[in-house]
Write a structure and sequence with these properties.
Blueprint lengths: L4 E7 L5 E5 L3 E4 L7 E7 L1 H4 L3 E11 L13 E12 L12 H10 L3 E6 L9 E3 L11 E11 L11 E10 L12 E6 L8 E7 L3 E3 L4 E9 L5 E14 L6 E10 L9 E8 L13 E3 L26 E13 L6 E12 L15 E5 L31
Parallel strand pairs: 1-21, 3-10, 13-20
Antiparallel strand pairs: 1-2, 2-4, 4-7, 5-6, 5-9, 8-9, 8-18, 9-10, 11-12, 12-14, 14-17, 15-16, 15-19, 19-20
Length: 400
């Protein structure tokens, strides 16, 4: 059976404009990004002579709206592009770029008009820091959004009931052949006072790239030629989120940890494989964990490692995410314990899914109301029951 041809739709309250899109995830391949395309359905009677516009925006938000200081919002619009859809500025057929658009136009009739955007190649991917269960409002995030609205002009004040927003997601998948690189390995030697011989530790992984939900095997080799006793070995996976816009804040969160109480006496050795599984399911209530941009609760997972195109400034990425395995040895001593640590970097991403060709999709379209689900405990801002408008900020088009 052919895959279902799902179309996401969202209509504004006064019924003047509606948005129809064949997908909500857009893939960043580092050197190119899937274009954003869809169809706007208008109601000429409800428009009452107003024009119709559609915008694609990328916004970095650092903190909630009520954290604004002296009227300066902790957010920046990284990208904004606007198209006039009605009255159309070009021939209807020239605006059709995909078969899904063509099918939608045939099904929706003469009042449907296509739109098309191309992403610049220097924008970040969707990512958000998980709020605490009691937090309300907007969290620190990079978000993408399509907004359609009717107004007298592009710069005119827009009525909330005459606009509709859809949250999109820009995602990256593991590059083909990326996991075939050299497996990361780190080793260190530590000398101690009153000890003739050193402590040698080596930590290595099976590969450089792991997929979400895959067990990470950490090979630890300890040769303790010193006179010190190793009292404990702690192995963890750290997620490092760096906010590169505004503050350069760094959030380090342990998303998986193993502590078996392994010890290595003076002159002893240890060779062991520790297994770690970093999952959002085990970190659901923890504030500050970076997530891949979320559209539905079940779609959420730990943020993927950030990969940026060579030559792109990191500052415009908003937020960078990386992962590392930490191996800590707790060394006993007369004056108290000390630590010997190693950091082994690796990448955590999704495998590239099998592409579904448009020709393989069912002819019959399945329309699905486009609603945004929120994590447990999050208040859905101003979004009403019908899911017409997401977000409670000013609905007027923002300046470029």
């Amino acid at each position: 059976m052919s895959p279902k041809n799902v179309v996401f739709k969202k209509i504004c309250k006064d019924k003047s404009v509606g948005v129809y899109m064949g997908k909500r995830d857009f893939v960043d391949r580092v050197d190119s990004v899937d274009p954003v395309d869809g169809v706007i359905l208008i109601d000429p009677e409800a428009l009452q002579g107003r024009k119709v516009f559609v915008t694609l925006s990328c916004t970095f938000r650092y903190g909630r709206d009520d954290m604004d200081v002296m009227g300066i919002a902790f957010r920046r619009e990284l990208y904004l592009s606007t198209r006039q859809v009605y009255p159309p500025l070009q021939d209807r057929e020239k605006g059709i770029h995909t078969k899904t658009q063509a099918r939608l136009l045939r099904k929706l009739g003469d009042n449907a008009h296509p739109f098309f955007f191309e992403f610049p190649d220097n924008l970040p991917c969707s990512v958000a820091l998980q709020p605490a269960p009691h937090d309300v409002g907007k969290q620190c995030a990079v978000e993408f959004e399509i907004k359609a609205f009717s107004a007298e002009s592009q710069d005119a004040k827009v009525r909330k009931r005459s606009s509709v927003k859809l949250m999109l997601r820009k995602v990256q998948y593991a590059p083909e052949g990326e996991g075939e690189g050299v497996a990361p390995s780190i080793e260190t030697t530590r000398d101690f006072v009153m000890s003739d011989k050193p402590l040698h530790v080596k930590a290595s992984l099976d590969k450089e790239l792991y997929y979400h939900g895959e067990v990470i095997k950490v090979h630890v080799n300890v040769t303790n030629s010193s006179s010190k006793n190793i009292k404990n070995i702690i192995v963890s996976v750290d997620q490092v989120s760096t906010v590169v816009l505004y503050s350069n804040d760094i959030y380090v969160k342990s998303v998986a940890i193993e502590e078996y109480g392994d010890s290595v006496s003076a002159g002893g050795t240890l060779e062991k494989v520790y297994k770690l599984l970093p999952l959002l399911a085990n970190n659901r209530e923890r504030r500050g964990i970076a997530l891949d941009g979320k559209l539905k609760h079940e779609d959420t997972n730990l943020a993927s490692s950030s990969i940026i195109k060579e030559g792109v400034l990191k500052e415009v990425m908003g937020m960078m995410v990386s992962y590392r395995v930490m191996v800590k040895l707790i060394v006993g001593g007369m004056m108290g314990s000390s630590e010997v640590g190693l950091e082994v970097p690796f990448k955590l991403m999704h495998p590239k899914p099998d592409a579904v060709k448009e020709s393989e999709l069912e002819e019959e379209m399945v329309f699905q109301e486009f609603k945004r689900s929120y994590l447990k405990g999050i208040v859905a801002d101003d979004e009403d029951e019908e899911g017409n408008v997401s977000g409670g900020d000013d609905m007027a088009p923002k300046e470029k």
